[in-house]
Amino acid sequence: MTIPSRRRFVTGAGTALAVAGLGLAGLVAGGGLAPAAAADQVSVQLDYVVRGNHAMFFVGRKKGLFAKHGIEVTAIRRGTGSANTMRMIGNGNAEFGFGDLPTLAIARSQNVPVVALAAVNQKSPMAMISIAAKHKLTRPQDLKGLNFAVQPSGSTYIFTRAFFAANGMSEEDVKRATVSPPYENYLLLGRVDAVPGYVDAEVPELEAKAGGPGSLSILLGSDWGYKAYGSGLLTSEKMIAEKPDLVQRFVTAYLEAFRSVIENPAEAVDIVVEANPEYAPKRDVLLKQIEADLASSFFSDDTRANGIGAMRTETWEETAKTLLTQGAMKQPIDVSAAFAGQFVKAANPLRR
């Protein structure tokens, strides 16, 4: 990659200078300057409304990390669920996206050409959630007979099916209510008894409304047989095939922003709120969302050895096996094509 220098000095008319180390011959006769190369413009498609683990995109843009690598992020668009995000990235509606990686595996089984670039959540942050004072959950079987709300598509439904199967249950064991998100509101209103959700998204927001820490009863999927990656950075097969240098620069900048979020989550939240002023009342919730990831899902043995965002074949195989054996995915996939770990490796990210 070549980076244009910001200043070029002319010692006399008609003199051409070679700028050592940058590979530029920017001066023309008469002391004129060649135009600087334009930054590559890209857009980002999120999986849902803005959450703490989306902070890397806003931090990278605000702190000039994408710009440093010759990239202009023109838009960071909110989404309506990981399944839709996969289709949009596969169709080329955005260059990069963020979403649930098990949903990416299922999308690939349906011939959607999306590829994971980094596993932000090294294990799934999904859980079954209830109001503790009403329904204490100590094991999956405590869900039997409860009024249970879930959207019939998307990452939470995939998790629900796999979680039930892993624990010898089915959807017939609960009284399922089909609702539209945000269905956690139905839990607060007492219209349902339990919902699936993310400990780094819904849980901090629900706790803030339900009475604070300890007000919720939570069964973390990774503790009860749901062995899978959580959410991550993704792109399309076409981007990797046609613009691998751009993909590498984006991943490198993203991981630099990821490090910044880890080292200063409060600053990251301030940047998110600056870009999304309507989230100012939720500043504390956004911070708790990042803190939940710091405590439970950003790090693993793999990130300690290979850096944040790292992925390995064995974990992808485990993710695919979980989805297949528990009925969430109908046919196997080539896991080696589902992720491209070389970009994280080349970025040499923070090891923690």
UniProtKB/TrEMBL annotation:
Pfam families: NMT1
Domain called SsuA/THI5-like: residue spans: 53-268
Highest taxon of the lineage: Bacteria
The name this protein goes by in its record: ABC transporter substrate-binding protein
Organism: Rhodoplanes tepidamans (Rhodoplanes cryptolactis)
